[in-house]
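Sequence in, structure out. Go.
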Amino acid sequence: MQTDGIFSQKTLKLSLYSGIMLIVISMLFLGREVKTSPFLMQLGLAILTPASFYIIGALVYRQLNAPLAAPGIVATGAWLVVIELVHFYDRRAQLPRVAEDYYWLLASLLAAVIVTLTAYRARIWLLVPLVPLAQINATWAVMSATGLSIAWWPVFSFLLVLAWWEMPLHDQEWRQAYRVSAVLLEVFLLIFSYWLPIKTEHSMLITWAACALLVAILALRHGWINLGPLAMVLLACAAAWGLPLVWWPLAWLVIGVGMVIFIEQLARHEVESHTLALELSTALAVLLSGLAALLAKTAMFIGSPLAPLVVIPVLAASGSLMIWIGRRRELNTAQHAGLWLLAAAWGELYFALFDTSEGYGLWLSLLAVVALLTERLLLTWNRGKRKTTYSVREVVARWPLADLVIGLTVLIVLWSGFTSVDLPATDPLIVAVTVAIVVGVWLVAGLVYRMPVLIHVALWLAPLPYTLMLILLAPHLATLQLFGLALQFLAMIYLLIGHLLHRQRPAVLAPFFVAGYIQLGLGLTMTLSQPMLLIVALMVVVIVCFVTSLIVILGGHPAWDVAVARLIPPDRRPYAYRHVHQLFVFLTAWLLAIWLYLMLGAAAFSPARQGIILVLMSSAWIVLGRLLPRLPGVVGWPVYAAGWFMWFTGLLLVFFAPPEAIITAIFGLALSAEALHRSKAIHWMPVFILQILFSVLQVAWMIDLPGHSLLLAVTMGLCLAGMVYDRPERQAGTITALTGGGLSLLIWLVRIDPITTLGISLLALAALLRYRRCELGLVFHSTLALLLLITFGLALHWRIFLLAGGLQLVIGLLLVIWTRPRRFRTLHALLFKEFDWASSFLWIGGVSFMAGIWSGWLSASEMTLPLVVVGIALAGCTLWLHVPRLPYLPLIILTAAFLLHVDSLVGQPFQQAGSAIAAYGVWIAAFVLAIQTLVTMAVRDHWPINRARWLVWWIRPLMNTSIFLGFVGVPVTFISLLYPIQTIWFVFSMLLFSLSCLILFRREGRLMWLVFAVGLVWTAWLVMLSRLGLSGLQWHTIPFGLLMLIMARAVRRIDPGFTELLAVGMMLYGAAIDVNLRGGVFSLAGLIAALQLIGLFVYGYRAQRPTPLAITLSIGAGGLLWMILKINLWLIPLFAGVLLLAVAVLLEVERARVERWWIDWQRRLGMTSPPKQN
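Output:
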């Protein structure tokens, strides 16, 4: 048999098997629906149907030489034998009473023989599952005929399982099939025993016992030790079915002990083949122990409660057994479960000894403490030391005692939380002591197991029992402010413990410091409402920060060092690391300054005296800030910053007290002058200038001078002085000029008026004359324009704005021509990239020009003519300058003028507006077409570009402008339809626009333009049909569909398949709508639809166009299926199955011819490309 070609052996098998399944499914349901009489006729049809497939299969095998398809046809007949057997089981009531008892027995035996012999002869895999089913049915038919009780059917069915397993067959495939069927039947019988309608404990017991006996026989027969655990499981289940529910835990526990004995016996003989049995036995022992404990605990919920004296030993024994198994077999999970079972037994023991639940948390905490002590003793005994940190998940999964300790303490916390709700029934002291013990256990466990997370939780939970004990032992201290101080005391204990445990890892120490610092701040916030306690709390924080800063400087704070190094790597960012590392210096300086301010306020000093004291004390901060950087790794700017903060606070406090203010100003001037003279640091110059301004402001306030003007004059004078003395070797002049200029700008922003703006303008002019920078020219230009705008406002006429903007633009363009090379005259470089003396004129002139246009739009009634004039002028400038991309500007202005003209057309009388708008639309369409034609000719013929190369920069702007005008002109033309106009104007405009789209499509090749052109033509066609009064969908679909079919063949730049799909879909949609609305299928519309289908089929077949051919064939196949569906639904899979069988026979017998047919239809349906012609 051939195997090469298009269709492989897999294709043949797929067709054959699919046909068989479809025929079997269809006959299964057809047989239920067909009711014929009498019974003999039904029997004849039932015999004739499978026999026909047997005969056809034999003929195909002998005459046509089809060794694969013929067995498939015979297998179909065998399946039909079983199906007919099923059908006649429901119809056996039509037989006489005497024959009814023996009919099913004979039919089942005959069907089993036929199917078995057929499977042995045909040897096809579809019959493999059918043979065991037929034999099972025959076996059960024999049991039914003998009158055996159905409760014993599963037991005797195990004999068939044994027969299948031990059947001496030489064929390996059939032996494997029978053994797999035996396993499946065994599982089914176990489940079937539970589903029996007369199910009893006796029936369940004998079924599971028989299955256990069968497994034991097979294990002994073949020496399979691994089946021993399975037999014991089945035996345990059988015993469970036969015993009352209350005895199940003890029975399972006894079986678990037996499994442990079996495990120890297997472990003595280290045989590799016993590995699986050992693992299964271990798992079974763990499972039985767990189930026994679970059932003992939950028996009360299923209606069979057990006595506590029974539950506690069962839980303890199960836990001990699982711990033994876990320790012997190194099963960590078993140890976890065993410990929890012991904990459950411990909890049950409490309720058996005591009647109240008040001390249940303390009872459980005792077990947690014992478990933690045991873990510590084991760690010491094994001489092990944990050197790395672990997460809670890792610790719980790794150490069973840690799981018990953490789990029990969590349960204790939850229990305490629930019981504390009912405070009258629970002693609060017991709750506090219980939670305190839990906190202690968590702290010790966190240190033992190296768990920072657990230490975090313990430290954050500790304030709860701490405050509760304070309330119970000292009720007079129960205020929020005192709680804040108490919380700070607890935080200091945390910090002390963290510093004492300096040998621990930083990750273990981090929770003590994090919780300590945060709770220290929380305590401070809790004292905010009481000033005296706030001072005390703030002093505590300052002391802690001071001590911590000393420890950090001395290098005794490893946790802080590691945290800062992890946040900011010192090797990558050493400067930031050094400053963040000294954070406590910053906190000490600033918090101490704040504490000093609060203390001065509490001492009842006047604000002026407070200011003097703060200024005097700030000098100490500043001196300390200068001395601290001498220490290695210490920064002084935090102390500097706190000193300046105190300085400025003191200045604000003495501002309205002239004597103190003068003293403060003199002190500040002296200090600043001395620091400037001693250190020569330029940052003291702004400080000195600020002191001068403060003194000037005080003098102006004392002698009643205008402070705003005086300050502006002083700052301008300072700025001018700095400009005069500005030298490269003198940085003080630069700092003075910058400080004076910045302060002048700040004063101007506070009060903007013509006088201050004039001063800023003069200052900008002086800077321009001094430094001669084009950036300063832009500043002076901007301030001058702002001065004019503030002085005159927007009351100027818009023509003045246009004239001023145009004049500045001309000056800027002249400067561009004179100062810039030609390569820097692009639009981007003209405005943004290059910055010189022309930039200020271009920018300010452009803004003024746009302001003139906006003002004219708001005030003038007609802006078309000014925009046209401006656009022409800009076009001339563009032609003169030869600036790339600058043609966009005049074209945009001219386009805006054209669009504004539409507004004037709409304002005309109703009878005239339509014609004017339509004519304007025609004019726009003609203008767009002309631009497209000229651009296309220029690109194609290179004229006049070959003589004036700079004209190339006009091509793309003109093209984009024409496209924009086209997108605007089409809606304008549609607006004309709202008026009474002649249709010829609208159609003519649409045709002109469509010609423009076609030109774009021809040049760019984008499908969008072709779609636009077709849409515009169709729109014109629709308007014509509407005006002529022609209705009917075929006026639209048939012409448009034919047009699209022609385009699919003629236009190469579009997808022909998609275009044909749209065309065919549109024509069929129109035909369907006409058929639905105009008479149905048997009418003129239906005839036209049929003719369209025939025409499309002929077109697709003759022209080898796949889309029309596939659509018409799909519609024809759908109609055929619809007619079959009207007869019977299940005839469809029957015909499909017969067709697939025929295809399989043809593929096996005449495959070459089938391949030629397939290739020809693939080519016609577009699945393959046609062969090339030589």
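Check: The longest helix spans residues 910-941. Residues 410 and 438 are 8 Å apart (CA to CA).
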